[in-house]
């Protein structure tokens, strides 16, 4: 699959993250949410439909993915949702001028190990600007050798594992979708690690 096509499909992780958002829908109205690597934007669209103030983003180098974000918004009657080009690991004017956020979403962004540090660099930058924010992310286990643990430590981040059964996502079918299937999907919430003495 070519890089530019990653964001053109709904992947199983997006369905699981959307299920988490739906399970927490009562807490979403008024929350400021940024979805990174949004592509088709299922989690961001669900958050927006639940009352969150959502910004969708994907790489500025992938205009097809940005157009996919816009199309998803139009199809779901969300024409007011902004779509930004944000490239992981790059400090851009768009990144610097982002309004405060409470929640960052990312489904299956940990797909290619060469991107892991760029993703976490961007997440660290956003969490430093918004210390009480959290990064809600789902990922598909593709290799036992892939880990972000050392990068979390390097960037002073911590993660909490969220069991899928805790929000009804431990099934092969979710919300009439068979996409989760038998894939091994995991969810975690990443936030800033607290310094000693704070």
Fold and architecture overview:
The protein has a single domain (12-192), classed as 3-Layer(aba) Sandwich (Rossmann fold), CATH 3.40.50. Helices cover 29% and strands 19% of the residues. The protein has helices at 12-23, 42-49, 63-75, 93-96, 116-129, 149-154; strands spanning 32-35, 53-58, 83-85, 103-107, 134-140, 157-161, 185-192. The longest helix has 14 residues, at 116-129. The protein is globular and about 40 Å long. The mean pLDDT is 86. Keywords: Chromatin regulator, Cytoplasm, Developmental protein, Methyltransferase, Nucleus, S-adenosyl-L-methionine, Transferase. It catalyses: L-arginyl-[protein] + 2 S-adenosyl-L-methionine = N(omega),N(omega)-dimethyl-L-arginyl-[protein] + 2 S-adenosyl-L-homocysteine + 2 H(+). It is found in: Cytoplasm; Nucleus.
What does this entry show, briefly?
The chain is an alpha/beta fold and 198 residues long. The protein has helices at 12-23, 42-49, 63-75, 93-96, 116-129, 149-154; strands spanning 32-35, 53-58, 83-85, 103-107, 134-140, 157-161, 185-192.
């Amino acid at each position: 699959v070519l890089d530019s096509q990653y964001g053109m499909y709904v992947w199983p992780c997006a369905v699981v993250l959307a299920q988490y958002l739906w399970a927490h829908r009562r807490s979403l109205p008024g929350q400021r949410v940024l979805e990174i690597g949004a592509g088709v934007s299922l989690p961001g669209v669900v958050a927006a439909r639940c009352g969150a103030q959502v910004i969708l983003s994907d790489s500025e180098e992938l205009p097809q993915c940005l157009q996919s974000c816009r199309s998803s918004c139009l199809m779901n009657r969300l024409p007011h949702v902004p779509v930004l080009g944000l490239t992981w690991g790059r400090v851009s004017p768009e990144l610097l001028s982002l309004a405060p956020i409470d929640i960052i979403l990312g489904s299956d962004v940990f797909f290619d190990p060469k991107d892991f540090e760029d993703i976490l660099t961007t997440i660290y930058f956003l969490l430093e600007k918004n210390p009480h924010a959290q990064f809600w992310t789902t990922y598909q286990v593709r290799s036992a050798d892939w880990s972000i643990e050392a990068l979390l430590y390097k960037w002073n981040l911590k993660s909490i594992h969220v069991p899928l059964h805790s929000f009804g996502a431990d099934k092969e079918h979710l919300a009439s979708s068979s996409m989760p299937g038998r894939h091994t999907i995991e969810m975690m919430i990443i936030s800033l690690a607290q310094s000693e003495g704070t």
